[in-house]
Amino acid sequence: MNRAVALAAGLSCLVLLFCAAWLFWYAPAPVRNAASDTRSATPAVVAVTAGNTVHVEAHANVPADPVAPANTPPDEAADPRPSPSQPKPDFRRSPSADKTPPLEAERRKVVSALISGRVLDAGFAPVEGADVFCEVVVMQRSMSMPDDESSSLAKVASSAGDGSFVFTLERETSESAAFTLYVSARCVGFAPSRPVVVNATAGGGFDVALTLRAGGSVSGRVVDAQQNAVAGVRVALGKQVPQAERPAHAGEYFEVLTDSTGAFSFENVPQGVHRIGVVSLVHNTRKGPTEAVIGDAHTILDDLVVEVVTALRLRLVEANGAKLHGPLTVTFRENGKDKQRLTGFVTGDGLVELVYPPVGTFEVIIKVEGCFESAPQRLTFSLNQLTDGGTFTVTRDPDFVKQR
Predict the structure, then answer these.
(1) Is 355 found in the same domain as 367?
(2) pLDDT higher than 50, residue 389
(3) Taking Cα atoms as reference points, which of 155, 146, 215, 148 lies closest to residue 184?
(4) Count of domains forming the chain
(5) What residues contact residue 48 under an 8 Å CB cut-off, 6+ apart?
């Protein structure tokens, strides 16, 4: 019995010791007394007037707790938006963060080239009165095509009695641009000279010799399968090359249009063998010569036989007489509904040819970029025939802004 009492008393002591240890280690810290807060600063004196009596009260300069004032409505107290005096934070990514700095504009230079020389015939005799032509091609470092600073073939001088000529070209361009001149000569009774290539990138003086070649002439006709004359067809003689390469072949490529009888002719062509053919969207060549041999005597070719596809030819002019240039859309309308649309491009001469319009009678409306729609014209299209739509007049839209 005594042993049992002693054992119970020992267990009770162990429990009490365990509880005391737990309270010592895990109990929360005692609550700090506001009266002993060390944040109190120098007392501030505030005067309060009540009637005619002035009371002086002292308050501890204790920082206010971050709670809403007592007279602030609940909705405003919880409003997390910044006050008008505080700028609203902007967490968007800065536009300049992803933008690479613009490249510095390339410096410009003025290229001045003095070109002089003589025009000779095939026997090295001087030729008087020959026209000297020059084409300027400017190639920028970052481009593979001639840019807007280039200029097409133009007459720049004429040869004197001893065949001599001289001219100067000046052009402002980018510092890294290549400045190339293609100089050639032409004269009645001769074929054009081959162009001389002048690299004038650094400027300076250049001496060139232009040799006119012996020339010849060739003629022929373009007809359809029924031997009817086909007028207004473009016939090309020589090596046809892309426009970007054409300066190097000046004097090697010729084009003419057939007249009302379908006839064409080329004069002062360099002697030799040249390719010949019809260049047209609305005609397919069926048979005829593909080469022309030019010699001392005049050469007459066999007929070039073409097949006309269903097509439309028209001419565009501005109301004020200015030239048109740019893309266009042709709408074919039937009973107030659009039947078909064709797109094309207006060249400098205002001539447009489009293939495979719908067969039948339609109202045709022309819309050129930068212009108002033309007045509708009623035209009839037949299978495998070229319809001449005549002239359409359009008016510029003064409010048009080209989208780049």
Answers:
(1) yes
(2) yes
(3) 155
(4) 3
(5) 54, 55, 56, 57
* Final residue in a domain of this structure, among 151, 183, 211: 211
**Amino acid (1-letter code) at residue 182:** Y
389 is a domain residue: yes
Question: How far, rounded to the nearest angstrom, does the alpha carbon of residue 187 sit from its chain's CA centroid?
Answer: 39
Give the per-residue pLDDT at 140: 75
Check residues 338 and 13 and name the one with the higher pLDDT.
338
The structure tokens listed for 303 are: 């007929």
* Residues 299-302: contacts with CB under 8 Å, at least 24 apart: 299/216, 299/217, 299/218, 299/219, 300/218, 300/219, 300/220, 301/218, 301/219, 301/220, 301/276, 302/220
**The pairing of beta strand 304-308 with beta strand 215-223:** parallel
Q: Is residue 69 part of a domain?
A: no
Q: What is the pLDDT of residues 94-152, one digit of tens each?
A: 555 555 555 556 688 888 999 999 999 989 999 999 999 998 888 876 655 556 677 77
Give per-residue pLDDT as tens, 307-348: 988 999 888 888 887 777 788 999 999 998 999 999 988 876
Nearest 5°: the CA angle 387, 315, 325 is 135
Q: Are residues 262 and 168 in the same domain?
A: no
Q: Are residues 205 and 115 part of one domain?
A: yes
DSSP-derived secondary structure for 31-63: PPPGGG-TT--SPEEEEEEETTEEEEEEE--PP
Most distant CA pair in the chain, distance: 155
Residue numbers of the domain that contains 374: 311-394
Percent over 70 (pLDDT), the chain:
70
Q: 154 and 196: one domain?
A: yes
Nearest 10 degrees: Cα torsion 335, 340, 346, 350: -40
pLDDT computed for residue 239 by the predictor = 67
Among residues 292, 308, 324, the one where a domain terminates is 308
What the block records as the tokens of 289 is 């010569």
Taking the model in full, what pTM does it have? Answer: 0.56
* Structure token digits, residue 110: 């003025």
